[in-house]
Amino acid sequence: MLRSPPQSLALESPMHFKDIQLINGGKHSEEKLSQNRYLTKYWENVRNLFSIHLVDGLDVAGISKLNIQLGEYEGPEYSPPDHRGIAVFKRKDFDFHEFSALEEEEKDAASLEYIESSLLTVCSESGVSAKVSKQLKQACQAIREEGYEHIKLHKKTSKWHSSRKARAETKLHFRRGGIDAYLEFIDKHGNVLGKHKIADSRFWDGLWADLWKGRWENDTFLITNRFGDTFVRIESAVDGAF
Predict the structure, then answer these.
(1) What's phi and psi for 49, nearest 5 deg?
(2) pLDDT digits 0-9 by tens, 188-227
(3) pTM above threshold 0.70
(4) Contact in structure between 81 and 67 (CB atoms under 8 Å)
(5) SS3 60
(6) In Å, what is the CA distance from 112 to each residue of 55, 65, 141, 154?
(7) What's the rounded Cα separation, in Å, for the pair 209 and 228?
(8) What is the distance, to the nearest Å, from the Cα of residue 84 to the centroid of all Cα atoms in its chain?
């Protein structure tokens, strides 16, 4: 399953690998901020997809999250995990202008390559088992085979109507540029009664908070956020199901 936002990492066991992040580092500047806004639509997508395909419970040298810092850096290439399990791997083979000149599909592939090659280098130098390295490779290969997109059922806001004659399903479309969310209403025979786009090009941490709870009120379906406010309300959602 896709993990909850990275801020929860401090509560997780450092022996279980959960997250990875590409970071375009260097000195703070308006130019750097502009570059990071541009890179986010590629880097956050591969990060989300990697999390989806990652096997649960992997021990990757005690790392819970690997930050891959791209750019000019001082200090050692690899910093072992701290008390939260967060490790850092530094590499100087990234050039923003070269990256931005690539075709869209090439940017996806390059982003994933930074993740895969960095992880495999850390695994090799840290004595991680060949089995774990293979599982990490398989997660990356699954992303390539799906074309850097993935559609996933969001169970928290997918519910059967009390009659059991219809069901609301929230589906998340992970793609370059952000996450789209759709709410579908399906009868017991699998026929789609209606489909509504409820989110467009969102980041995971914000969307995760908005898609907190789903419930039926007669034939109306509501999704509330983590603060109890209504995010989506669709009335007469299952006309034709009864």
Answers:
(1) -65, -40
(2) 889 999 999 999 999 999 999 999 999 999 989 999 999 9
(3) yes
(4) no
(5) coil
(6) 17, 16, 10, 24
(7) 10
(8) 20
